[in-house]
Amino acid sequence: MTQPTDIRRARALRPRVLDLFSCAGGAGTGYRRAGFEVDGADIADRPNYPFPYHRGDALEYLAHLITTGDIERYTFVHASPPCQHGCALTVGTNASQGWGGTHVDLVAPTRALLDRTGLPYVIEQPNGRARIRKDLTLCGEMFGLGVIRHRNFELGGWTVARLAHVPHRGRVRGYRHGQYYDGPYVAAYGNGGGKPTVPELQAAMGITWTDVREELTEAIPPAYTEWIGRAFLASRTLEVAA
Fold this sequence. Notes:
This protein is of the alpha/beta class. It has eight helices and nine strands. Helix content is 35%, strand content 16%. The longest helix has 20 residues.
């Protein structure tokens, strides 16, 4: 029979990831499934986040962890800084229509702090003009999901072979310029225009613990970071074996 001390010892042996700009936990859940303990940090109140998290400015918190040495608790850092500054929607449709406001680019200051930690990390951003290296690009079709949701990842302090992109099976369902198109994928952003219901979004993304549309549309599918987390742990195992 498993004893409580055995459970605590097993948890202590798991590597720990710091999930910055953690939102509702799409990324964090993937890392948990890959074998990590997860701590989040987000400036917003996130009652649906399924792991311990610090509520406050993520970069200020990271700087605090570096200054105090508490960053040494972690093996790996994931960062998903707000993407409105450089995402394709903002710089494309919104810009052409004069919508939206001024957004701060947090990628560069995030990278600067991550480099100070000395830890391996990833920075995640959508397609667009965000100034990150696209060391890895993942797509929902690679994991059999009901969203396309391309995301790019800059890898700091470690490498992994790029996955080959899988051809899409059709269109994203919804209206485009007044015409409705059907397809095997749902649009995981916005409202109206044939956008999916919340249950459809949950099923397409593989996210069940939140039913808040904003959180679902901001999240990345856990399948992405589960793959990244397993790839990172495998790379460390190979280094030790060598």
